[in-house]
Amino acid sequence: MKELTYLTATEMGTWIRERKISAKEATQHTFRRIASLNGKLNAIVACDEQAALESAKQADKEMAEGNIRGPLHGVPITIKDSFATAGLPTTSGFPPLKGYIPQHDAAIVRRLKQAGAVLIGKTNVSTLLMDLQTDNDIYGRTNNPWNQERTSGGSSGGSAAAVAAGLSYLDIGSDIGGSLRVPAHYCGVFSLKPTEGAVPSTGHMPGFEGMSDYTSSRHMACYGPLARSIEDLEVAFSIISGGNGNAGLPHGPQVLPPPLNDQPLHIRWIEELPGYPTSRAIRDQLRRFVKILEQQGMRVEQVTAPPLDVRKTWETWGKIIDAELNSTTPTLMRGLAHLLTMPIYRQVPTATMLIPLTFKNYMRVLTIREQLIRNFEQFMAGCDLFLCPVSCTTAFPHMAKSRMWGYKPIYTKPLYVDENPQNYWAATTFYTNLFNVTGSPVVTMPIGFDEQGLPIGIQCVCKRWRDRELLQSASKLYATCPEWKAPEISVEPH
Fold it and tell me: Which of 121, 222, 248, 281 is most buried when burial is the number of CB atoms within 10 A of its CB?
């Protein structure tokens, strides 16, 4: 039943409230869909059908009593396998955590449950969320619903594939360098990377408590929804945002936007970054899209120079990641790694290490980050939105790792952008991690397809703490696009 399968989360919530379907029936339908299709995609890796059905029955009982918790009451959803879920495995794709089952829910999971959503399962990730393809030694590889020979992206690849294929009505993922936006682009769905700090990290990547006596990854990581509509992003953000004790109240100077009006938006856009061209199909679709926006009366301004010093921004990303994730590595090993991988830095500035790793150098790189944030905010003061590609290609064929450096995959073979070879990391992440450094909110939305029928998305970037304004503006832009399209996948009998 395609109509039911591809309802948005908010549409499904409306159907449940209007008694067109019960939460139990919606959950049973979703599990039938998973049984018939997940074998091809491997998007969902852990389920507890009995517990989900009990939650759905409780949602129906509350509905009958007149207790409706909100727009997602009774709606079946999934969560990325890096968020703590009481009673369900949470592995982050890391073999030592195979079989680890937390006894608590992450903050966002708790909020979604309190809002009446029905958690049906966990979605696949790359090992320790460290790749732009989704594959790990516990659950294996996730395939793209549009073409199973191609990647779904990473690290939230299972999330995007599940939402695109109708295995879930909503998913929540994470993003420290593109892990929400790249899978959304590859799989043809929507995502929101909120302003850094707008959504709590509590309960993300649990199970490492005994490995260090302090929390790493303090900067640039964001947590947000993947969905089949911008309205779903808005609803999910309203539920999961806010400091740990203030569900629904964004932590930080959020600016509530005025209602949508007829005033034209001022949009700046860039076709590609110098030295890292996108594919012809992506350039063509972006040009077509902005031309339509211009025809709709919006003020469209193409910029040829990036709004940031991109190399400095990439190096800053790499140094912060290195300082925070590798701080427990012995100094001698860090020095050896620096020498062995130095040739890579010239080609991939995001691989830059912070050498020597001292408190002074760490504070210095955070100060550079603050300067970059100010520079980008000044650029954004002159416009409402900034549009740019998500990555250099559409979803590419599954690509094998050359080797592993610890748990970080190393790719020595190039990724082809049309006929031109590019470094794997440059082609996949150089357009996204800029906005992890600036901490800006970003909506990724599908705007078309390439000649092979693979989805093409764009990044819509706004000022920090203007997440709600961004969502309203992105909705205005998406109104010029064709209706969202689902991939055609043959369903296996069951």
Answer: 121
The model carries a pTM of: 0.95
Bridging pattern class, strands 76-80 and 171-175:
parallel
Say what percent of the chain tops pLDDT 90: 83
At 379, the amino acid letter reads: F
E strands along 171-250, which residues?
171-175, 190-193, 222-227
Element (H, E) at 320: helix 310-325
Q: How far is CA 442 from CA 159, 218, 249, 415, 459, in A?
A: 17, 19, 19, 25, 6
**What's the token pair of residue 200?**
């709590």
Q: State how far the Cα of 245 lies from the Cα of 352, in Å rounded to an integer.
A: 37
Q: What is the CA radius of gyration of the chain?
A: 21
Cα–Cα distance for residue pair 225/229, rounded to 1 Å: 11
Query: Read out DSSP for 129-167?
Result: G--SS-EETTTEEPEETTEEEEE--SSSHHHHHHHHTTS
CATH code, 2-271+440-478? 3.90.1300.10
DSSP per-residue string spanning 345-369: HHH-GGG---SS--HHHHHHHHHHH
* Residues marked as catalytic: 80, 155, 179
Cβ contact 309:273 at 8 Å = no
d(C-alpha 447, C-alpha 184), whole Å: 12
Domain assignments of the chain as residue spans, ordered by start? 2-271+440-478
Does 356 sit behind a cis peptide bond, omega within 30 degrees of 0 on the bond before it?
yes
Q: Is residue 250 pLDDT above 50, yes or no?
A: no
Each residue of 351-399: pLDDT tens digit? 899 999 999 999 999 999 999 999 999 999 999 999 999 999 999 999 9
